[in-house]
Design goal:
By secondary structure, the protein is α+β, with helices and mostly antiparallel strands. The chain contains 8 helices and 11 strands. The chain has one domain: Phytochelatin synthase, N-terminal domain (Cathepsin B, Chain A, Alpha-Beta Complex), CATH 3.90.70.30. The strands form 3 sheets. Strands 1-8-7-6-5-11-4 form a 7-stranded antiparallel sheet, sandwiched between helices. A two-stranded antiparallel sheet has the order 2-3. A hairpin with a 2-residue loop joins strand 9 and strand 10. It is globular and about 60 Å long.
């Protein structure tokens, strides 16, 4: 009996250890951790990280993850490389400008969450909840769905490929395609995923990916809402699962973005 009890105890211990390993494998790894530093250092798929970091901005409100992510990518592609970028004049009120030197224009040409939406995209107030027509019904459609996000970037002349992660989408092909993008310069990935699928609070969310680490099979999400969640490394299977979730009319997914030509 003692031998049986010992074997049962050993089996229980091994099961607990296996469960702990599985939990650890699925856990999000914080950007500020030593493990995160090691993953970025050894990653062979991090070409996008540096320009994204240089042009990174965070959300000022809980709705604008799409416009913020769009502004980051547009600036990463064009700021310092292309003239005639739009100006967002809302940072200095008209009555405040009276104190500036005569003829001085203090505004920089750059993309912001306030100027990426145009007449060719969903409007600012529609993003904030003004009802739009979906399937013949007026619906409050907060934020941006995947294809709406693609239209925002396409309206600025970018080459955008939208990948909806349906139930039959191949996880291996998704992993390989995104990793290839992250290994090359001047093309970027935005992901649209469900936070709850990753164990985070909140609903649907959009952010850029900065790197892929093959050893841990994980992607770095450069979360644009650090008020709610920090940058994290997430297992490829878990991120794909979080994209394989329904959003209003179809599943979520990712965008591959570059300049045309």
């Amino acid at each position: 009996m003692k031998r049986v009890a010992a074997l049962l105890l050993l089996a229980a211990g091994l099961a607990a250890l296996a469960a702990a390993v599985r939990a650890d494998e699925a856990a999000l790894v914080s950007w500020e951790s030593g493990e995160s530093e090691a993953r970025l250092a050894r990653s062979a798929h991090k070409a996008d990280f540096f320009r994204l970091s240089n042009h990174f901005i965070s959300q000022d409100n809980s709705i604008f993850c799409g416009p913020v992510s769009s502004a980051i990518v547009l600036n990463a592609l064009r700021l310092g490389r292309k003239d005639g970028l739009p100006e967002d004049r809302r940072s200095i009120a008209p009555d405040e400008r009276a104190w500036l030197p005569k003829g001085h224009n203090p505004f920089f040409g750059k993309y912001t969450p306030g100027n990426v939406l145009t007449e060719r995209t969903k409007s600012r107030i529609q993003v904030l909840g003004k009802p739009i027509d979906i399937g013949g019904r007026k619906v409050r459609d907060y934020g941006l769905q995947l294809r709406q996000l693609a239209r925002v970037l396409g309206a600025h002349g970018l080459d955008v490929t939208a990948r909806v992660v349906d139930e039959d989408a191949d996880a291996g092909a998704i992993r390989r395609e995104i990793a290839r993008n992250l290994a090359t310069r001047d093309d970027y990935v935005l992901v649209n995923y469900a936070r709850k699928s990753l164990g985070q609070p909140g609903g649907g969310h959009i952010s850029p990916l900065g790197a892929y680490d093959a050893e841990s099979d994980s992607f770095l999400i450069m979360d644009v809402n650090p008020n709610r969640a920090p940058w994290v490394w997430v297992k490829a299977r878990d991120l794909i699962g979080a994209m394989r979730t329904f959003d209003t009319v179809e599943n979520r997914g990712y965008l591959l973005i570059s300049e045309k030509g």
